[in-house]
Amino acid sequence: MAGLTDHHLLAMKKRGLAARIRNGGILQWSTVCILAGLTGCDSKYTATPKDEQMAALQKKLEAVDAEKSRLMTGEVANNFELPGVGFYHAEARDFFPYPFGQEKDGKWYVNGQWQEFAPGEAHVTASRPTPEALKKVELALAREQELIAKENSGNSGNSGNSSTPRSSSGFGSALMMYWLLSGNRGSYMPGAGFRQAESQTGLWQQGLARDRATVSSYASSNPGYSRMVAQSKSTGKPVSAGSSVRGGFGSSFKSSSGS
């Protein structure tokens, strides 16, 4: 096709695609956008409060799934946050209220104390908690079960899905505590909180399964949400209502605050 310019070739491609759409053509406009990669198909999407809520729930679910195998072996990764217990410092084998290496006023938090110099990389990446630390976990597990029972009781009269974002978080937190205690039964003798949890784990798993299905369905019907989540994972910034992303086939993410 010598002598044809790029402009002519692009025009011919567009006419050919348009012909396949007219009169019941087999292609839909969404498919055309994917095949042609036309810049006009790119669109700006602004996150809604529902997107923010779903993204937060999805993040919690992914954290539970990512840590399950390790916790069931009885270990905890350094700086892992177990909701209701704290941040784990693998070298000290205990949970504390601040992350390992957090800086504040020229000091750094390491193994339960503020020190004058930055700790650098942690020498221990994961470890088994001490029996005293596991006791904290079991006490937190008992509290979490009380909260779940209270919230489920309060929601019993509501129609629809009785799983609220808070109780969903509770299901995941409680399961992680249970897995950790179960993985350390060789060195720690669990008490009443653990035994009570044994009869509840199936219900908690079902609650998480419902939440996974809810997030999956929402993502499938909201491509803009999926783009926001992808951007969040690439930048490390959480999805927040009002933030925006622009993207389509062959384009890169761009974000801004506000619509």
Report a brief summary of the structure.
The chain is an alpha+beta fold and 259 residues long. The strands form four sheets. A three-stranded antiparallel β-sheet has the order 1-10-11, covered by helices on one side. A three-stranded antiparallel β-sheet has the order 3-4-5. Strand 6 and strand 7 form a beta hairpin.
Commentary on this structure:
The chain is α+β, with helices and mostly antiparallel strands and 259 residues long. The chain has helices at 6-21, 29-36, 49-72, 131-154, 165-183, 192-198, 201-221, 223-235, and strands at 43-46, 76-77, 81-82, 86-89, 94-96, 102-104, 107-110, 113-115, 126-127, 244-247, 255-256. A three-stranded antiparallel beta sheet has the order 1-10-11, covered by helices on one side. A three-stranded antiparallel beta sheet has the order 3-4-5. Strand 10 (244-247) and strand 11 (255-256) form a beta hairpin. Helix 3 runs parallel beside helix 5, helix 3 (49-72) crosses helix 7 (201-221) and helix 7 (201-221) crosses helix 8. It is globular. The model is unreliable at 32-40, 158-167 and 249-259 (pLDDT under 50).
Oligomer type: single chain
Summarize the biggest pleated sheet: 3 strands, antiparallel
Helical coverage, percent range: 40-55%
Head-to-tail CA distance between termini: 45 Å
What is the mean predicted local confidence, pLDDT? Answer: 81
